[in-house]
## 1
Amino acid sequence: MTSTDDLAPYPETPEEATAENLARHMAVEAHYSATLNSPRFQLMMAAEKTGENLADKRSLYMLNQALMLAEHGVAFLLHELQRFAPDQADEVAARMWDMWEDPPLQAITWDALESYGINPEQVSAAALARWEAATNPPAPAPSGLAPWDDGTCGDCATGKCHGTESDDCGCARHEVSQPDIDDEVWL
């Protein structure tokens, strides 16, 4: 069986880490991930119907989607760099390869965020909050309440706020107490 490394091997040395070699490798990896995207989507859809391992299947699909886009993005940028800045393309590719080979990547991403004026601690807090929300489902509604009624809003108990606009009922928690499928947390 042919492996992706047989088609376009990952560079093993700085000398092998040319823009052409890295772009070829990343293009193969992106297509590999793209090929797996459809079956992973089908698994997620099947799990959505049964509820069995839905979070795991959704996470696998979304991670594959992100990986595919990142791999393709690197291949595309290196290819374009060869076209528009051929004298610098190999140097940039070698620096990127060296960065990948010299972890920890969190220190590198930290520096990158700071160079854009973005607070890395805020990004970390947002990532951990999303992880926490995705891995710890909300507690079930108190007995006798509808699943969307968290019991904290008097208007929810009367049914006054749900199914209407929040301006109509005056419920400040209207958007929070009735989840919308489009707002679901995705890993």
## 2
Amino acid sequence: MLDAAFDPNRSFKGDLTPGGDDQLLLTVWASARDDYAPMYSLAIAYRCVPTETRGQRRCGYTARLLRTGLMDNEGFGRSLELSGQARIATSASEMRSQLDKASLQWLEADVDACPKGIFAMDSVRVSDWRPDIHFGLQDTKDREIIMHPAAIRVRMSGTYATSAYEGWVLAAGVPAAVRQLLETLEPCWKPATAPRPWTRR
């Protein structure tokens, strides 16, 4: 249930019209520690929704974010606490109740209207998606060991191709571009009125 709650693919589940222009463009999952304590999930979709004018639609990019809190010690602590609750939950309904009481932040932003939002989103696309060098190709003195690294998984689709990245949340390249995107969107978040991911069927 915890995995489902923070699955960014569920953020727009049921809200995108199949067979049309609607598309889930970007998904991000990030942890607070290793790959078992989720910190946030981010999804950006291109959607066309009806306007007040009959027969007309407005198309644009919408972002939804589920997080345990700001990316600080409080958010880190909540992530670990929630992970511990998931391990001892005896049923999906019990975990669902824990999620309902967890004061998770479920937010939405209009990327088009957010200053530099489109630029920050596209900066993820043009960032460096290559993996870093394998340790076997490095000199021993240049090797770095990171204990319990927070993980990040990113997937982004274009018109004809999709790219995926998995690695350290504080790395350069794609993770750095995602951090900049979140910083850009921060003043634009509003409480989301859409159903929360763990309540979606």
## 3
Amino acid sequence: MGILTLIRPVGARMLETAERDGVVVDRTPAERQACLRLNAKGLLRRDRRDAATWYPVIRRARR
């Protein structure tokens, strides 16, 4: 079971877009909530100046 199966549809779409494009911008309250949830899980980080811009967190592979 992958991480995307545990995330709600809006969150899964936002995370997929961030990983594909390197950035995602929330445009609706539902997207903002999804990004906040992903941020709490350590999957997205927020831009310091533009609160609607999010970046994927680069994780190092475990050895």
## 4
Amino acid sequence: MENLYYKCDGFQMRVTKNMLGAVQDYMDEAYIAATNLQAELQKKEKWTGQSELVAEAFLDLLVQYQKDFYGDGNPQELAISAVKELNDNVSDFYDNFPDYNTLKEFTE
């Protein structure tokens, strides 16, 4: 009988954590760039009319969205922390969690 129980791959978890970290870096850079652009646009005196209003409204929404993913305690940072914690404790789970070991016995 084929063994069907699943065991996390530490290498793939590290890859995932690294990719989440890279995404966070890009989100931080995007937020800083958006706020810099927002400040730059507010200084421009020659740009007026509906195109200015539409661009500012779009940029305001973009900055509001990106702010949620910037700094401490954002969802991306929490995901990175959770993957790291899982990776740090996964061997304990496999060795000491009775329900997992029971499942493993059924599939062997």
